[in-house]
Amino acid sequence: MKTIARRRFVSVLAGLAAAPLLPRAASAQSDPFAPLLLKLAGGAKVSPGRVTVDTPRLADNGHSVPLTVSVESPMTAADHVRSITLLSERNPRPIMATFHLGPKAGRPEVATRVRLNGTQHVLAVAQLSDGSYWSGSAEVEVTESACLDAT
Amino acid sequence: MVALVQMPRQAKRGEVIEVRIVIQHPMETGFRFDLLGRAIPKNVINNLSVRYNGSEVFLAEMGSGIAANPYLQFFTVAEASGDFVFEWIDDAGQRGAERAAITITG
Amino acid sequence: MVCLAHAAEPQKPTPLKSGIEFASEDVRKLQGDDFANPGMLWVARGVKLWSEAAGKSGKSCAACHGDAAKSMKGVAARYPRVDPGAARLVNLEGRINLCRERNQQAPPFKHESDELLALTAYVAYQSRGVPVGVVLDTQNRRNFERGRARYNTRVGQMNLACAHCHDRNWGRQLLNETISQGHGNAYPTYRLEWQTTGSLQRRIRACYFGLRAEMPPYGAQELLELELYVAWRGNGLPIETPGVRR
User: Fold this and answer.
1) Among C41, C48, C115, C193, which would you mutate to test the B interface (most chain B Cβ atoms within 10 Å of its Cβ)?
2) Ordered domains of chain B (ranges, CATH)
3) Nearest-CA distance C126 → chain B (Å)
4) CATH class for the region spanning C39-125
5) Does the domain spanning C14-33+132-245 belong to CATH 1.10.760.10?
6) Reported ipTM exceeds the 0.90 cut
7) Are the CB atoms for A22 and A32 separated by under 8 Å?
8) Is B73 an interface residue toward A (CB < 8 Å)?
9) Helix residue ranges, H only, chain C
10) Inter-chain contacts counted by CB atoms under 8 A, chains A and C
11) pLDDT tens per residue across span B54-75
12) Tens-place pLDDT, residues A43-98
């Protein structure tokens, strides 16, 4: 049982290694988020940076993955985060949520639990009060359950 | 809908406080099928707003990408004593609400 | 049917480890956070149900039992047990339903209904930290032996017994999951796979499904007897309800 389990684990790893990994600073052609960002930011530039997506590297279950998104911002009336949108690379509905903050938020950080339909990147896009857009992403491995459960 | 809210009952003026809410709701994606093969209709809490003494301090627009029994943790600045009102609505039009009071010291 | 254990004394895993010890850091954190733990939503509902009048009696649980924190402490740790009135083995869910019928003249809650899960979770929550302590006696000895035999009997297309995973291979990997010892001390539990809270019977049925075996129906004698054996096997482990599992 130990050897079989080890072999299976290695073959799972090999499978993961063979799967194409998306480059983080993706070019416009291969970036799956590009059309979404275009729609979201209305053509404005979305710069990678200032946004951190904290989520486990390996999810226990795709039904519920803890996720915390935070943005570097002084959160003053003059300079604050207006909104944070969570985007999924592979879910059937790519826009997962939009959180509207504002200067009274105090700390530009939101935590929630998301559903992820398989291994993918999650992208968080923050719109700041000056109209600029910033993004951050994280990759999450989501595997199948060892045993099926149809209860 | 059963919901739980956690936030400090007291805070100093200007203090950044942590607010947490969790709501019992299936956040039905619309992609699941019942045992007879019929699609279970989509029904998620699509809007949750938080008002502090009447002004909105947080708004979450959510979709099926948020896990069942949605959990949200966010922050806000404690200003004046008063009420926090949490209100939400799902795709089927069902509404839910919770209140929490806060006392500001100093 | 092939039975595994021939020893006179049933084998318990050593050292005894709750399922939470095999869980990831995220799941452990979730179970340990009384606010973020989704199972607490059912406990919260249980608080309400406890004080609601039910059935023709118009009495609530509180009318007889008062403060659950006092009256229900330690109760969950003794189940499943043989109910003297009904003269049969019942689990905590079954005992709650018996109380509804006898003392509240209310219809029993359906298996896996939100109300039954909420009340069971609420009652078991009062025993958090209390070690599981089912007692074997002449009344439940046959139930126990049948439960033990079933635990060691191969089932399904995969032709495995509970013992194969949970006695012989706990701690080892099944794909990316670590096999636990198969205890029931955290039930009713919030299972991420279910996206809701569920009973131990649901979990056992899920295991049957995983082995591609026909699932015994809710309330089946086989499930109750397995629950008794599983509880005895985990005697000493603290109740963790509401648990969180993947």
Assistant:
1) C41
2) 3-105 (2.60.40.10)
3) 19
4) mainly alpha
5) yes
6) yes
7) yes
8) yes
9) 25-32, 40-50, 61-65, 68-71, 92-103, 114-125, 141-151, 162-166, 200-210, 221-233
10) 67
11) 999 999 999 999 999 999 999 9
12) 999 999 999 999 999 999 999 999 999 999 999 999 999 999 999 999 999 999 99
